[in-house]
Structures are given as C-alpha cells and as structure tokens.
Amino acid sequence: MDFQLTEEHLAVREAARDFAQNELLPGVIDRDTNAIFPKDQVKKMGELGFMGMMVNPKYNGGGMDTLSYVIAMEELSKIDASASVAMSVNNSLVCWGLEKYGTEEQKEKYLKPLAGGEVLGAFCLSEPEAGSDATSQRTEAILDGDHYILNGTKNWITNGSSASFYLVIAQTHPELGHKGISVFIVEKNWEGFVVGKKEDKLGIRGSDTHSLMFTDVKVPVENRIGEEGFGFTFAMETLNGGRIGIAAQALGIAAGAYELALSYSKERKAFGKPISKHQAIQFKLADMATQIEAARLLVYKAAWLKDNGEDYAQASAIAKLYASQVAMDVTVEAIQVHGGYGYVKEYHVERLMRDAKITQIYEGTSEIQKIVISRSILR
User: Fold this and answer.
1) Is-catalytic flag, 363?
2) Residue 50 clears pLDDT 90, i.e. is over it
3) Is the dihedral of CA 325, 296, 63, 81 positive or negative?
4) In whole angstroms, what is the distance from residue 328 CA to residue 347 CA?
5) Cα separations (Å) of 135 from 177, 231, 235, 317?
6) Distance of CA 284 to the CA centre of its chain
7) Are strands 165-171 and 121-124 parallel, antiparallel or unpaired?
8) CA distances (Å), 300 to each of 161, 199, 247, 288, 296, in order?
9) How far is CA 198 from CA 29, 162, 191, 226, 293, in A?
10) What is 38-75 written as a DSSP string?
11) CA distances for 367 relative to 213, 233, 323, angstroms
C-alpha cells in the first residue's frame, strides 16, 4: 500500500483548491439563495479541464485517473456542491459511458465537445414512477424505419436545461422488462423535446435540476448506444462509477464544514478562552476529523480499484453510503460548533448541511447502496 499522493495528484488538488477559493466562493451564498446556476464558473471549469478529466486526450479529455477526479471533486465540493455535481454528472455519467460504450462516430460528435468543456451533458434515468426502481421505465422509444420515436418524462435531471446532449434511458421492448431497455443520445434542440421548470430544492439550489418531456422525438438509430436491450446494463455500470463521484462530493461537503468549524473554534471565545480549548468542542472536532479520514480512505480505495481494473461496484457503494452519512453528521456538528452563527447563511455551514442531504439520495439512495452491498457480500 502507498498512501502518498503523486506530484500530479498534489497539483490537481492545488489547482482545484485555488479555483474553488477564487472562482466558486465569491457569490456562492447569493447563487444558493436565488437558485442561480453557476454558468460562468462551470464554463471556466471546462476550460481548465475539469469536465472530462478521465477521458482519453484524443477525445479532448485530460487522460487522468479516477483518483485525480475524486481529489478535484472533494476540493470543489468544499465550497460549492452545485458546481461540483455538474462536473460529476459530466465526467462520471456522461463522458465515461460514451467513451466506454459509444461508437467512434458518437465519440467524435458528442464526446469531444463534452470532454473539452464546450458543452454539458445530462444523464436521464429517473422518472415520476421510476426512481430507485430503475427497471420500471415508462419512457418508450419505438423503432420506425431509420429512427426511434421517443415519448416519456424524466425527473430530477441534473444539468437539465444547461446541457446540450442527453443520455436517455428508454424502453424499446416493454414486454421484455429491464431486458428491453435501451439508451440513446438526444440533442436539446430536437423537435418535441421540452425542458420543464427548475425544481425549487432544499440544497444544491444552484444545480440545474429539471423534468424533461419527450413527445414524438425522432432519434436516429445511430444515436443508440450499444444494442437494443443494453440500456439497463449501461445505466448500472455507469452508476457504479458515478457513486464514486458523489462519494467524493459528500466527502468534500463534510471536509468543508469541518474546516470552517475548526477555524471558527479558534476565533470564537467563551468563558474567557477560545472554544477550541473546551473539551466538548475538542471531542466534536476529533470525531469529525476521524469520520472524514475514514470516508476519504473508502473513496480513494474505490477510485484505486477502478483505476486498476478491479471490481469496484461494492467499494463504490460502501464509499457512497458511508461518505454521505459522514456529510450529514459532520455538517450538523459544524453548525453546533458555530452555535447561533451556524444557523445563518453568512457562515456557510447551514448551506453545507442542506447540500449534504442529497448525497444520501441521488445516484442511488443509501437504502439502495445497502442492497448493492448486501447482495455482493452474500454472493
């Protein structure tokens, strides 16, 4: 085992940390309050190579490993989880799936601009009646000559209105159940594709979350990824990697709250001395630091397994399950350390607590992660 980061990993961390402090921190409270998508900041993230970090350079990607990606995700998520989730979806769910399973024509047309940060992508799996139960897809794509006719609704789609390209999971053969599900690349400007209103959310309020409606959208056959019936496998394989990204986001939210609490504890005085001198606060900080370090090791292990071609499905589920719980626990305690000040927006920690909750829900709820883990260990 080697717990030492390489010079490249350290450089990625420094670059992401600088960007978070200089570009994401200014205005982050206003963007959260008014649910403003960080458009300019995400564009700069693309210019810096954060939107296609693991993609082969021949497709405009950074050619980096998964560990570099999770290091960057942690640093950005310390400051603005609404920006980091746009990065996570583009990297883990869209670019990865396209690079691994797409045709050369699809990679040239869609992956290159996505990995280069020129445009954003979205991953469309959830529906009004198909959240955790991804097998119950109601969206249909029926073959009609050289194209499919796509009809249906997708819910809770990150980058919903800001994306240019969408990976849409749909039923091509409903009679086959999950074995009849396929996946398609859909362009935003196609006739019959409508973006619904932005969701008014508890946390990650700047994130661009929408419902999408498809009415007789014509999708060329060449925009299907893989064969008919490959969609469910595609979604599950993609989500295995996506969970590593969300685990890294949860880790970053926790670490950001902890750093704020640590700093505040040294400044705030009570009973004649900084509150960091009181054992009650010291123990809180010790617990927070321990949980964060444990979560970080789980996230790094999942990333390492993926980079080394090992089976990482169980490890990514464990990392997401634990890191998301740590994000909730640590942000709640960070508010407690801040006392009354932690309850107001100016000190950031209340926003981090609201942002933390979604990491237990999207890309597989904590309950789904326990199903994945239990099936794996029992097998």
Assistant:
1) yes
2) yes
3) positive
4) 17
5) 7, 10, 10, 19
6) 28
7) parallel
8) 32, 32, 10, 18, 6
9) 19, 11, 20, 31, 35
10) -HHHHHHHHHTTTTSTTS-GGGT-----HHHHHHHHHH
11) 28, 20, 14
d(CA 36, CA 4) in angstroms, rounded, equals 38
Q: At 127, is the secondary structure helix, strand, or coil?
A: strand
Kindly report the length of the chain: 379
pLDDT in tens, 195-234: 999 999 999 999 999 999 999 999 999 999 999 999 999 9
- Measured between its terminal Cα atoms, the distance across the chain in Å is 27
Question: What are the start-end ranges of the H helices in 268-344?
Answer: 279-307, 313-338
Residues paired with residue 141 on neighbouring β-strands, in sequence order: 150
Tell me which amino acid residue 94 is. V
8 in Cβ contact with 68 (< 8 Å): yes
The 8-class DSSP code of residue 339 comes to: G
Q: Is 151 within 8 Å of 190 (Cβ atoms)?
A: no
Residue 1 above 90 pLDDT? Answer: no
The structure tokens 């961390």 sit at: 13
> Where are the extended beta strands (E) located within the chain?
121-124, 140-144, 147-158, 165-171, 181-187, 193-198, 209-220, 269-270, 273-274
Tokens (6 digits) for 241: 């990697």
Q: What is the largest CA-CA distance in the chain?
A: 79
Q: What tokens does 296 get?
A: 């970080």
**Is the CB of residue 313 less than 8 Å from the CB of residue 372?**
yes
Which pLDDT band, with edges at 50, 70 and 90, does 377 fall under?
very high
- Catalytically annotated residue among 127, 175, 363, 367: 363
Long-range contacts of 56-63 (CB under 8 A, 24+ apart): 56/99, 59/99, 59/107, 59/108, 59/111, 59/112, 59/115, 60/111, 60/112, 60/113, 60/115, 60/116, 61/95, 61/99, 61/115, 61/116, 62/115
Give me the residues paired with residue 186 across strands: 166
**Cβ 287 vs Cβ 337: under 8 Å:** no
| Number of other CB atoms surrounding residue 241 within 10 Å | 24
For 167, counting Cβ atoms within 10 Å of its Cβ (0-12 exposed, 13-18 middle, 19+ buried), the class is buried
Q: How confident is the model at residue 131 (pLDDT cuts 50, 70, 90)?
A: confident
Q: Does residue 123 carry a pLDDT above 90?
A: yes
What integer pLDDT is reported at residue 340 of this predicted model?
97
Task: Compute the distance between CA of residue 152 and CA of residue 356 in angstroms, rounded to an integer.
Answer: 30
**pTM score of the predicted model:** 0.97
* Strand pairing class (147-158; 140-144): antiparallel
